[in-house]
Automatic annotation (TrEMBL):
Lineage: Bacteria, Pseudomonadati, Bacteroidota, Flavobacteriia, Flavobacteriales
Membrane topology annotation: Multi-pass membrane protein
Superkingdom, taxonomy of origin: Bacteria
UniProt-recorded name of the protein: AEC family transporter
Keyword match Nucleus: no
Gene Ontology biological-process annotations: transmembrane transport
GO CC term (a single one): membrane
Positions of transmembrane segments: 57-78, 90-113, 119-139
Key words of the record: Cell membrane, Membrane, Transmembrane, Transmembrane helix, Transport
Location relative to the cell: Membrane
Pfam family, one: Mem_trans
Amino acid sequence: MSNFILIAVCFLAGLVLRKFGVLPKGSHHGINGWIIYVALPAATLKYLPTIVWSTDLIIPLITPLICWIGAWLLAELVSKRFHFDRKTKAAFWIVTGLGNTSFIGFPLISAYYGEKYLSIAAVTDQMSFFTLAVFASIVL
């Protein structure tokens, strides 16, 4: 329960600081850089070595691929309906099916299930990145 309170407090603090202009414009770049280049890689490197690889990980591994395939089907339908050009359709494929879920996903996994399940979240996040890297390279 304390994790949910922490998440709510952080969101509220961000809203209050933004509303009253306490921080200078663009100050979010520093924390975003730290999260992307330090915190998320550190979390991944902490939890991936503790994984016991088994068939139980098949679902977390294929989930990003299934989401991307669903997004691809949706993109095909929407692009035909709205007559998207090739580049717009490719961008639609990428942004609808994949995302960096670790920003919100890791804290929520920790809050709902506990820290021991962050290794599964790290596996899913890495597979999502792999799917993005492979398919974005192909369609773009």
